[in-house]
Amino acid sequence: KSITKKILITGGAGFIGSHVVRYFVNTYPDDLIFNLDALTYAGNLENLKDIQDKSNYKFVKGDITDEAFVNRLFIEYKFDSIIHLAAESHVDRSIKDPLAFAKTNILGTMVLLNAFKALWQHSWEGKRFYHISTDEVYGSLGATGFFTETTAYDPNSPYSASKASSDHFVRAYGETFGMPYVISNCSNNYGPNQFPEKLIPLFINNIINNKPLPVYGDGNYTRDWLYVMDHAVAIDLIYHEGKNGETYNIGGFNEWKNIDLVKLLCKLMDKKLGRAKGTSEKLITFVKDRPGHDLRYAIDATKINKELGWKPSVTFEEGLDKAIDWYLENEEWLTHVTSGEYQKYYNKQYGK
Ligand code: NAD
């Protein structure tokens, strides 16, 4: 069988990455999909059990900040394109350990850019570096307005500052070395396989276990939410049809105040678990605000909608319903990730 393209997906064992890897492996059987992931606490190969034996899929364990290793890998496999998702991704962790975020998100991205440049700088034809980023680079909105692709960067957390920096480096490699690139900035994702430190899976897990639901500040923070599969489909479209040198904002047209979202989640969970109405809401506890907390993010996704014909396939209520069902049907997954059991799975599957 002839392989048409070698695509390197970084961070493919993580939440969004695992959906992207699966989508590409199943949709493009003639492409060879490499998944490079360091398997940090957030990387879990159990997410990809169903495709691990496919002939067009290859997992490589490694750290994107390890320059010698990345360079060797690129020389060995000569990837045609990269879809770069590997990152430290949790804002609260970035407040505790900003340097870890600079290392992976900034330096790691640069190591990949350099390795890609070394391979193809004499002929970029048919090559592409696709950087996956966040709407958090734009900072915070007031009660009105939306982030567009031309909104000035104004990051407030070490996480968003590191992602903003990596976006700038990708653009700089485009301008300076002619590297063909695209960037997309997406709003908050939710859905199956999300590590339960993030709001929706954390709260689903806590409701199941009758544990408090810690809501920051007054709960009035507003976020736009997108079902993770809709993000994967947008990534596929941008990868194949996006224009070089362009940025695309991806959003769910779906803004929720945290407190309203948590109340909806509680209502759905009571129903699913057969508990009396109002049971889960009693678990809500307001906790001290996160420092530098952005009030509101909202994405204007007109460009990707108009130019590439993308729009979300599910409403928030449908997506949340599906996500909850998945966590309830996969309680073993939840137990494994909360107890670090998936490391054992890796060792069993691949050896140390
Ligand atoms: P995640 O934390 O679930 O997964 C990150 C993956 O990267 C993990 O598998 C981890 O093992 C891997 N990784 C971390 N450091 C690495 C390193 N040094 N070398 C190799 N692999 C490493 O993250 P996610 O939520 O799936 O986010 C993926 C990407 O999408 C990130 O770039 C993030 O900034 C971006 N993003 C996320 C959201 C969201 O709502 N989760 C929204 C917009 C953009």
UniProtKB/TrEMBL annotation:
Residue ranges annotated for the NAD(P)-binding domain, each copy included: 8-322
Stored InterPro entries: dTDP_Gluc_deHydtase (IPR005888), NAD(P)-bd_dom (IPR016040), NAD(P)-bd_dom_sf (IPR036291)
UniProt catalytic activity: dTDP-alpha-D-glucose = dTDP-4-dehydro-6-deoxy-alpha-D-glucose + H2O
GO MF term list: dTDP-glucose 4,6-dehydratase activity
Cofactor(s) needed: NAD(+)
The keyword Cytoplasm appears for this protein: no
EC number(s) on file: 4.2.1.46
Keywords: Lyase, NAD
SUPFAM superfamilies listed in its UniProt record: NAD(P)-binding Rossmann-fold domains (SSF51735)
Lyase in keyword set: yes
Any Pfam family the entry gives: GDP_Man_Dehyd
Root EC class: lyase
Source superkingdom: Bacteria
Alphabetized PANTHER family for the sequence: DTDP-D-GLUCOSE 4,6-DEHYDRATASE-RELATED (PTHR43000)
NCBIfam families: dTDP_gluc_dehyt
Family named by the database record: Belongs to the NAD(P)-dependent epimerase/dehydratase family. dTDP-glucose dehydratase subfamily.
Official protein name in the record: dTDP-glucose 4,6-dehydratase
Species this chain originates from: Zhouia spongiae
Gene name linked to the record: rfbB
